[in-house]
Specification:
With 75 residues, the protein is mostly helical. A two-stranded antiparallel sheet has the order 1-2. Helix 1 crosses helix 2.
Length: 75
Amino acid sequence: MRTTLTLESDAFAVAQNYAQARALKLGQAVSELIRLGSAERLPMRQKDGVWVFELPADAPKVTAARVKELLEDTP
């Protein structure tokens, strides 16, 4: 399938490097990266009726203050 994509410059650089490292055409590289990203599933479990992600023990804690800070940065 042929289509036109507009990629952010950082995403384009990743796709281009991926393609060059594997001797792929850019479209093939983008397709592979999308498949890889969509196939990855984060482990989840239900806690007190809410689904939560299983994060590594050394992952930073998500606090209410951090969520508020991130929300304030949202355009």
